[in-house]
Amino acid sequence: MSSPFDAFITNDDEVVALLAQEWTRQTSTLQLIASENFASPAVMAATGSILTNKYAEGYPGRRYYGGNQVVDEIEDLARRRLTALFGADHANVQPHSGANANVAVYQALLAPGDTVLAMRLDQGGHLTHGSPVSITSKNWNFVSYGVTPRNDDPAAPGEMIDFDNVRDMALEHRPKMIVAGATAYARRIDPAPFREIADEVGALLMFDSAHVAGLIAGGSHPNPVPYADVVAFTTHKTLRGPRGGAILCREEHAKVIDMAVFPGQQGGPLEHAIAAKAVAFKEAAQPSFSTYTDQVVANARAFGEALSEEGFRMVSGGTENHMVLLDLREFDAELTGKVAQEVLDRAGVTTNRNTIPDDPRSAFITSGLRVGTAAETTAGLTEGDFAQVASLMARALRGREDESVIGQVRAEVAQICSSFNPYAAFTK
Ligand code: DSN
Predict the structure, then answer these.
(1) Which of 36, 122, 162, 208 is catalytic?
(2) N or C: which end of the chain has fewer CB within 10 A?
(3) How far is the CA of 233 from the centre of ligand 1 (A)?
(4) pLDDT for 381-415, tens place per residue?
(5) What average pLDDT does this structure show over 239-243?
(6) Ligand 1: does its nearest atom lie under 6 Å from the Cβ of 126?
(7) pLDDT tens digits, residue range 1-27?
(8) Contact at 8 Å (CB) between 148 and 158?
(9) How many CB atoms lie within 10 A of CB 419?
């Protein structure tokens, strides 16, 4: 089986062979990485378009190269569609990635050494939220907040953003900026309390909505734009666009944000990716996209419940977005995230290991596993299918020493994937 998108690569058998392998992997195994999705053929076609040839340093109407009449219209279209989608004043669609977008925001609005309050990586935050190994912690003084302690009472689950801690840290450190948003956190993030705390200490509020941008666009999660000074995100996760980043901001910050992206951080924008972002923003504005994001959330809830019934513990006692963060220790005290990820890979289920709050194991080994429903919901799976996937995952992990169990699970996974191929119309 091979991808129809590779038909034009007539001069490179090695690359074509590898692309065919990846096509088979993506369409015959389950993609449960919470930050991935299946972009539409239209998005992929725009990403592979003629715009890859064009240099366009600058912004529409103010470029440093000639020949940008069409590119200007493309980028303007992407900006217009994005501001309309989220109700924002201003959009910058040039960041090559979410990390670039975040760093550009810091560069635009902070001076070197300024204090920023953000979520700690091992509590669910992102590397660019001031991890010691990230450039962000070298340029700015990050202090962090975390989640409340674990509480197994379902009526008052712990491991939720600790707003008392956010407020205490804000009052103690008087940050110039507070960052809301997470990368491994399964609960809804309400922007209003963050705004209140930011106002109390005179801080700017940045909302990193990389994971939930699609859920916001679809109306399944609250929109941070009315609350935040800046909203930064990736375009390829729940938003289902091409790999890349984007920034929304209030008009008063537009000039410095644009300057920080180009020329502050990047050179020529990837106009082929920007065209693909425009396509994705139009797709996300359709009523069918809201149906999709509601289903993503419903699927995650059903998946989490089914995984709990198999003996896994859901961090924060549940999920309200597209992901489930699992504590593997209840299922099997010996099972690490690293081993679980490797076993599931062999069984055709693609996941990623993840630290959980107060994880006794290192970030390389971990006690947690993160799974998400965005991609396979695009492929068409619904609640009952995710319950079946939960049971297959548990079977593979319980039988991880027995290759015949792994083989059976892999065959059942392949069966599911043959019924739910996101690119079925193109499969030869
Ligand atoms: N945002 C990360 C993830 O969630 O997978 C990648 O940086």
Answers:
(1) 208
(2) C
(3) 11
(4) 999 999 999 999 999 999 999 999 999 999 999 99
(5) 98
(6) yes
(7) 466 668 788 889 999 999 999 999 999
(8) yes
(9) 11
Is the CB of 101 within 6 Å of ligand 1? no
State the DSSP string of 119-180: E-GGGT--GGGT-TTSHHHHHSEEEEE-BPPP---TTS--SSB-HHHHHHHHHHH--SEEEE
Fold match between domain 47-284 and domain 295-427: no
Residue whose C-alpha is closest to residue 358's, from 319, 325, 391? 325
User: Distances from the Cα of 205 to the Cαs of 154, 165, 335, in angstroms?
Assistant: 31, 16, 39
Look at residue 2 in the predicted model and tell me its pLDDT.
60
In the numeric block, which tokens belong to residue 270?
């990837």
In sequence order, the 6+-apart residues with CB closer than 8 A to the CB of 162 are 145, 146, 147, 148
Q: Residue 82 corresponds to which tokens in the numbers above?
A: 């994005």
Fold of domain 295-427: Aspartate Aminotransferase, domain 1 (3.90.1150)
List C-alpha distances in Å: 282 to 13, 140, 224, 422. Answer: 35, 36, 20, 19
35 lines ligand 1 (CB under 6 A): yes
Q: Which of 6, 55, 338, 346 is catalytic?
A: 55
Tell me which of 6, 57, 72, 383 is the catalytic residue. 57
Please report, for the chain, the start and end positions of each structural domain, with discontinuous segments joined by +: 47-284, 295-427
Above 80 in pLDDT, residue 426? no
- pLDDT of amino acid 154: 85
Query: DSSP assignment of 330-395, as one string?
Result: TT-TT--HHHHHHHHHHTTEE-EEE--TT-SS-TTT-SEEEEE-HHHHHHT--HHHHHHHHHHHHH
* Side-chain half-sphere CA neighbours of 8 within 13 A: 4
pTM: 0.97
